[in-house]
Amino acid sequence: MLKEAISYSIDDNASVRVVQITDPHLFADPDAQLLGVNTAQSLDAVLNTINAVHYPADFMLATGDISQDYSGESYHNFVRAIAPLELPCHYLPGNHDDPRIMRLNMQGPKIFGQRRILAGNWQIIMLDSTVRGKPGGHMSDSEIDIIKSAVADQPDRYTLLVMHHNPILVNCAWLDQHCMDNGNDFIKQVAELPQVKGLLWGHVHQKLDQKHPGKHGMVHLMATPSTCIQFKPKSSYFALDALQPGYRLLELKANGTILTNIYRVPGDNFSPDRDASGY
Ligand SMILES: Nc1ncnc2c1ncn2[C@@H]1O[C@@H]2COP(=O)(O)O[C@H]2[C@H]1O
Ligand SMILES: [Fe+2]
């Protein structure tokens, strides 16, 4: 595993620029909807918005729940949808992805499932927080071992840890039951590593930007809106938000700091069924 890293030739004193999209929940059927939103069309709208802002990204991170129906075709639809951006795409599984079907079908010259990305002064580690058959997550000891050996292998690189599930609660009781169930312990362990500068995830279909006091400085904690339906923040029961689909841009600077923000599709073309009680 460790040797399987994808390297980008980016100068050590240059920033690494990343686009993150997450939770597209695609179907084999391009006309299918999730709670009233055509997820293929909302993904296209996000990708068109990313294209329009001409962010000089080096690569894209796709952080899970690529599929909603576990079909191989849904992954082919994803690969086809992102092709016009001509960006390398690194992916990891969410609770709605079957890792085997995902690996088999997320195929293309610029599609990567490798665990490690080396770029500029940074190492990005793609983690699997899924628990087979469950919506909630867990960061296993073997995943934490991957982090520790990757950091030991590249001790002079700043490190961004990327995963699907939220390691901290988002104050939505209905949703927090599906969090990473050992998130506190996970954060405690990785905050001990001076190289770790940020944790990035999806799953909660809403924006979150917090700082966690690590042993060697603040660690960014970042969640990114879905490219389809949005969950209403701080709602104890299942509730959708009228906010539009979104994505995140990150600039991983050569000095280890992270500049980042989330952005949303303009207009209000995507309004979900607000009476929906779940899926
Ligand atoms: N009404 C609900 N109550 C609890 N969980 C739900 C509800 N609706 C959907 N979910 C689950 O919560 C998960 C959160 O986001 P996911 O897209 O991973 O998949 C979702 C479903 O598995
Ligand atoms: Fe999810």
UniProtKB/TrEMBL annotation:
Fe cation 1 binds at D23, H25, D65, H205. PANTHER family: CYCLIC NUCLEOTIDE PHOSPHODIESTERASE CBUA0032-RELATED (PTHR42988:SF2), PHOSPHOHYDROLASE (PTHR42988). Keywords: cAMP, Hydrolase, Iron, Metal-binding, Nucleotide-binding. Pfam families: Metallophos. Its cofactor is Fe(2+). AMP binds at H25, D65, N95, H96, H205. InterPro entries: Calcineurin-like_PHP, cAMP_phosphodiest_CpdA, CNP_phosphodiesterase-III, GpdQ/CpdA-like, Metallo-depent_PP-like. It catalyses: 3',5'-cyclic AMP + H2O = AMP + H(+). Residues 17-206 form the Calcineurin-like phosphoesterase domain. Fe cation 2 binds at D65, N95, H164, H203. Belongs to the cyclic nucleotide phosphodiesterase class-III family. It comes from the Bacteria. This is 3',5'-cyclic adenosine monophosphate phosphodiesterase CpdA. Hydrolyzes cAMP to 5'-AMP. Plays an important regulatory role in modulating the intracellular concentration of cAMP, thereby influencing cAMP-dependent processes. Binds 2 Fe(2+) ions per subunit. The keyword Lipid biosynthesis does not apply. It comes from Shewanella sediminis (strain HAW-EB3). It is an enzyme of class 3 (hydrolase). Its EC number is 3.1.4.53. The keyword Metal-binding applies.
